[in-house]
Specification:
The chain has 328 residues and is of the alpha/beta class. It has two domains: 181 residues, Quinone Oxidoreductase, Chain A, domain 1 (Alpha-Beta Complex); 135 residues, NAD(P)-binding Rossmann-like Domain (Rossmann fold, 3-Layer(aba) Sandwich), CATH 3.40.50. It contains nine helices and 15 strands. Helix 3 links the parallel strand 8 and strand 9.
Length: 328
């Protein structure tokens, strides 16, 4: 690397739409002890990036400057004390910020080798979604073989990953989506039942199918009560986003009578040790699912880093199915 090398990153100069995103130049970051610097090939775009752009999801203290939570590329430099990786290794990583960049730094515990059957260019579509589904569906939600799993937004990055992971774990999967094409994609990914929420009442369909043991909700609003209504006895409902609002009025009688658990979580602000633990669990359980062909990132579209505004406009439109990626 030359001394004059510069790092492109993406910032939101103020809260707002995609037009507030600017590509700016910064010095190439130096990995601190315990960190790995990655020369990025691809960066994943996620809903939390959109929420941060809008001004509602500030970065945790100490996070690298700029947007972006997941990357893939090659190890470029190792901080003091890092072992198990070598310069040039193909990797993907969860980062606390600064992922929309030429170079990113990540704690070594949040870096994973690119799994078999996935290209380095596609691997950026894995970390944020896989970590999120693992911790919320399998750890918090405790989904087990033979149970019924309901996921809303079945063709989102999270949803498409959740369908495949739940099927790999032996669950029956119900998914909701907003168009006939997206319903078909849910079915192609393995959903046993896929519901067009614009033409059918998902609550009625799920209840007719016997209810759900675990529900992953990104919608919020009126869905919270409907989730309670269609959950099975001792069901677990996990909220990870609120696309239609986080403030709701609920009748909690069914929550009590069914002995339900209603909970939620975020990922970005968790301690490094917790993220490292999650990474180890994902590598042990989820990476073999990828190697066996049971799970693959679903890619909607690719945009050049300089076209980040267009990429966010695609995200805002809701028309995407799968992950939106930023490439070199």
């Amino acid at each position: 690397m030359t001394e004059s090398a510069r790092n492109r990153i993406v910032i939101a100069r103020e809260p707002g739409g995609p037009d507030v995103l600017d590509v700016v130049s910064r010095p190439v970051p130096t990995p601190a002890p315990g960190e790995i610097r990655i020369r990025n090939i691809t960066r994943g775009i996620n809903r939390p990036d959109q929420i941060e752009r809008l001004g509602f999801y500030p970065a945790p203290a100490g996070a690298p400057e700029g947007l972006g939570l997941e990357v893939s590329g090659h190890v470029d430099a190792l901080g003091e004390g890092v072992d198990g990786f070598a310069i040039g290794d193909p990797v993907c990583a969860l980062v606390a910020g600064g992922g929309y960049a030429d170079w990113s730094v990540a704690p070594a515990g949040s870096v994973l080798p690119v799994p078999d059957r996935v290209s380095v260019a596609d691997a950026a579509g894995l970390p944020e979604t896989v970590f999120t589904v693992w911790t919320n569906v399998f750890e918090i939600g405790a989904l087990s073989h033979g149970e019924t799993f309901l996921v809303h937004g079945g063709t989102s990055g999270i949803g498409s990953t959740a369908i495949q992971m739940a099927k790999a774990a032996g669950a029956r999967v119900i998914a909701t989506a907003g168009t006939a094409e997206k319903v078909a994609l849910c079915e192609a990914l393995g959903a046993d039942i896929a519901i067009n929420y614009r033409t059918a009442d998902f609550e009625a369909v799920v209840n007719e199918a016997g209810g759900a043991d675990v529900i992953l909700d990104m919608v919020g609003g009126r869905y919270v009560q409907k989730n309670i209504n269609c959950a099975r006895m001792s069901g677990r409902i996990v909220s990870i986003a609120f696309l239609t609002g986080s403030r709701v009025e609920l009748d909690l009688m069914r929550l009590m009578l069914k002995r339900l658990t209603l909970t939620g979580s975020t990922l970005r602000a968790r301690p490094l040790e917790e993220k490292a633990r999650l990474a180890a669990a994902v590598r042990q359980t989820v990476w073999p699912w990828i190697a066996s062909g049971q799970l693959a990132p679903v890619i909607d579209s690719r945009f050049a880093l300089e076209d980040v505004r267009a990429a966010h406009a695609r995200l805002d439109s809701g028309a995407h199915a799968g992950k939106i990626l930023l490439t070199d």
